[in-house]
Design a protein that fits this description.
31% of the residues lie in helices and 15% in strands. 42% of the residues are buried. The protein folds into three domains: 50 residues, no CATH class; 145 residues, no CATH class; 362 residues, Immunoglobulin-like (Sandwich). A hairpin with a 2-residue loop joins strand 10 and strand 11. The protein is of the alpha+beta class. It is elongated and about 115 Å long.
Length: 570
């Protein structure tokens, strides 16, 4: 009877029940428990948010080292005015309920650094540096496990506007989605001093050291660009904002070393070139056939300054992060770098470090030399002859003339339609190596461009044609196999060049049938891989501008290939 009375009284109202504890002890315990839980959770959350403040993190003076590094990055100061603190990247947070458990886990995780501070393990900059890689690996592993949740709180693949990204970013992000990669797989070292290159074991090699430590699988799978003496390859680096030609020229004009100094390494090379340049006159006299170029599609291409970057540097992952993509995914260099070749060239010509290994590709920056030159390229054919037209506005000429006879030399190289391994990715960069004369690792001052494993009879060589502006000089009709040959072709080559106002125009005319040693026949059922180099301002050797690798075919559209050019009959 007493129980029935108690139930009835409880039903009369919640507050009345609270005022009668003996009869409502269970409900009171529930209410007190809920209120206590809220109070405890609120206290924990308040404490957690307090300890998430950057100021709290900096109370351990050791943390000032990474914080000063953060302040120099785009994550701290940028054009949008957004900024992140320690917890934004090191403590997972969002609106998902389970994230509270992640926060608690991260707090326990961070206690290791606090203990290290207290015990003196990382309490000085020197000790912090000694343990930096260990701590970084711990963070990278955690972010990998959480699918880079800390990054994805702000950055999401599906929210990216690829029309506002540069080619390299678009390609990388598309590949990351297809490969199931997460942010931290590619973006280590973006907020603090980079040490991820040490994961491979030891300091990242550069130049020839890189080649000997991690040799490229085969030169054929490597990117190389056309040059008429010695060249480098397109590096990969953190890119500055896009620059117009004038802006890039202004940046590069600040390069401190005079051209006179830059010319020192090529003195012997010039003598060697003169001795080998037994130029054969054009097989047929007369002028290049007049064409209506207004009907021929144009392709805008940026030729850029490569410095001493050779094939081996480009194809070494420790130096160039995209080496694996080039080899494994068969991604042409132009797929990533056509849009930012100007930035690459501007960085190199100014003597700035580039690539993963932060290598300086130009030890003697030529004063006043710009980093790139925009060019307009056109190609057409008439069934028996093929025509290539180049147009550009030359940069301001300097006082030093490394090649006083030729204000301009324009060189083009192409294979026999997939006959040179890897040329579909890099054009003629496979002819440029780090051991060539005037390159950093040169061992022979007469060594010219070459193709590893060249086979002239089997077609494994690059056909070479060159225009020279010197008075009375005939065009060069040669090829590159195990060395560079500057004569011997019989392709009825003609070349004309002239200045039209403030621009240069150079046109090649060549028999599609070829006809001689070192001449590739150009036929309709093949795709040809090519590249070209521009020696401007009376320059010589490697002090030129180079293109990335491109392809052309006859009357055969190939819209799925970015670096392909359809040469249509006129």
């Amino acid at each position: 009877m007493a129980d029935e009375t108690q139930k009835a009284e409880c039903k009369e109202g919640f507050f009345k029940c609270l005022l009668n504890p003996p009869k409502c002890s269970l409900l009171r315990m529930i209410v007190i428990g809920v209120l206590g839980g809220i109070f405890i959770w609120g206290g924990l959350n308040t404490g957690m948010e307090y300890t998430n403040r950057t100021e709290f993190c900096l109370s351990c003076h050791t943390m000032k080292t990474p914080y000063e590094e953060l302040k120099k990055t785009v994550h701290y100061s940028n054009r949008t005015g957004t900024s992140v603190g320690c917890a934004d990247c090191h403590v997972a947070s969002s609106k998902e309920p389970f994230d509270y458990a992640r926060k608690l886990t991260q707090k326990v995780f961070a206690s290791k650094d606090v203990i290290g501070e207290i015990l003196g393990t990382i309490d000085t900059p020197e000790k912090f540096e000694a343990h930096r890689l260990t701590m970084a690996k711990r963070v990278w592993a955690h972010m990998k496990e959480t699918d880079s949740k800390e990054c994805r709180n702000c950055h999401k693949f599906d929210k990216m506007d690829t029309t506002k990204q540069k080619d390299r970013s678009v390609v990388k992000h598309e590949g990351a989605v297809m490969d199931g990669k997460t942010c931290i797989d590619c973006h280590k070292g973006i907020a603090h001093k980079p040490v991820h290159h040490l994961l491979e074991g030891g300091q990242a090699p550069t130049g020839a050291a890189a080649a000997s430590t991690s040799p490229p699988p085969a030169p054929a799978e490597t990117p190389t660009a056309p040059k008429s003496d010695t060249v480098g390859a397109p590096p990969v680096a953190a890119k500055p904002a896009s620059a117009a030609p004038a802006a890039a020229a202004a940046v590069v004009a600040a390069a401190p070393v005079a051209v006179a100094e830059a010319s020192k390494p090529v003195a012997k090379a010039e003598a060697a070139e003169k001795s080998e340049a037994k130029i054969a006159p054009a097989a047929a006299g007369g002028s290049v056939k007049a064409m209506d170029w207004s009907k021929v599609p144009t392709r805008q291409i940026k030729v850029f300054y490569p410095g001493q970057a050779g094939l081996e540097w480009v194809m070494n992952k420790a130096d160039h992060s995209s080496a694996a993509d080039i080899i494994d995914k068969k991604r042409a260099c132009a797929k990533c770098h056509e849009g930012d070749a100007n930035e690459v060239g501007a960085a190199i010509v100014a003597g700035k470090p580039v690539g993963v290994s932060k290598t300086v590709m130009e030890p003697n920056p030529p004063a006043g030399k710009v980093g790139f030159v925009p060019m307009t390229f056109q190609a057409t054919h008439d069934g028996s002859k093929i025509y290539f037209r180049f147009e550009w506005v030359p940069p301001k000429n300097g006082d030093k003339k490394l090649d006083p006879k030729n204000e301009v030399k324009l060189t083009m190289m192409f294979d026999g339609g997939g006959t040179v391994d890897g040329s579909e990715l890099n054009g003629c960069w496979s002819t440029c190596h780090v051991d060539l004369r005037t390159m950093k690792d040169a061992k022979d001052d007469k060594k010219t461009k070459y193709i590893t494993g060249a086979d002239l009879a089997g077609g494994k060589f690059m056909d070479l044609i060159q225009y020279r502006s010197g008075k009375g000089l005939s065009p060069v009709d040669g090829w590159v196999d195990s060395e560079r040959h500057m004569d011997g072709g019989k392709s009825q080559l003609k070349a004309e060049g002239k200045k039209e106002g403030n621009k240069w125009v150079v046109i090649f005319e060549r028999s599609m049938a070829g006809g001689g040693k070192g001449d590739h026949a150009i036929v309709a059922d093949k795709v040809y891989n090519f590249g070209f180099a521009l020696h401007e301002d009376y320059t010589n050797a490697r002090f030129h501008y180079v293109s990335l690798g491109y392809q052309f075919g006859l009357d055969k559209p190939n819209p799925g290939v970015k670096n392909y050019i359809d040469v249509q009959k006129q």
